Amino acid sequence: EAGVVQSPRYKIIEKKQPVAFWCNPISGHNTLYWYLQNLGQGPELLIRYENEEAVDDSQLPKDRFSAERLKGVDSTLKIQPAELGDSAVYLCASSWGQNNEQFFGPGTRLTVL
Amino acid sequence: GESVGLHLPTLSVQEGDNSIINCAYSNSASDYFIWYKQESGKGPQFIIDIRSNMDKRQGQRVTVLLNKTVKHLSLQIAATQPGDSAVYFCAERGDDKIIFGKGTRLHILP
Predict the structure, then answer these.
(1) CA of B42, closest CA in chain A: separation in Å?
(2) Which CA distances in Å does A103 have to A22, B76, B83?
(3) Which end of chain A is more exposed for a tag (fewer CB within 10 A), N or C?
(4) CB-based contact B23:B34 (threshold 8 Å)
């Protein structure tokens, strides 16, 4: 069974440019999460979806970050414009329901120059 | 605010010895705790979990201990192997949200 798929794996952009990350969760998982992970730190939740509804986006910096999960399956996280401080690993995870085990993808490592 | 932390950023253990990784949490209302393993270039991987109504849970080569009195969580790995080399995170669930600690990097010495 395929795990959580993320692309791209690496992205290097200049500051003020836009960037988008894509995630395909495990088939059948209705809950999808986007996390930010800075170097040496644990993941921090950005947004959680239950099917196509964003049920917790309290930690998402909405001035520059946006996310969508239009059909309740795959999801896109966008940053526009990117800042130097956005350099980090962006992790996607999915689960069957909020209280079940989360399965993480490999992440997208973003470098903003 | 709520936070979960680990006592040591790195831990070096001789191959074959037992490893103990510690974690302190601050939210006494948290009802569920998880240990994750993260290898280089990969996302965190679930190892073992424990609910707040338990104080010990065992898996294959791993044991999690929970001390609610002092809000302390530990992960014990028996007979540490080279494949155990990774960063280990504890996490707690409070207010319907999983909060991760900072991580301990486990080095295996030959």
Answers:
(1) 4
(2) 16, 22, 20
(3) N
(4) no
B3 pLDDT above the threshold of 50: no
Distance CA A55, CA B63 (A): 34
Query: Looking at chain B, which residue has its C-alpha nearest residue A103?
Result: B45
Provide the pLDDT for residue B2.
39
Judged by CB atoms closer than 8 Å, whether chains meet at A104 and B43 is answered as yes
**C-beta of residue A56 within 8 angstroms of C-beta of residue A46:** no
B→A contacts (Cβ < 8 Å), by residue, are: 4, 9, 32, 41-46, 49, 89, 91, 93, 96-103
pLDDT tens, position by position, B51-90:
999 999 999 999 999 999 999 999 999 999 999 999 999 9
Q: Do B103 and A42 count as a contact with CB atoms less than 8 A apart?
A: yes
SS3 B42: coil
User: Which residue of B49, B91, B96 is in closest CB contact with A98?
Assistant: B96
Report the amino acid identity of residue A23.
C
CA-CA distance, B60 to B63, in Å (whole number)? 8
Place of tokens 């338990």: B54
Q: List the structure tokens of B20.
A: 């103990």
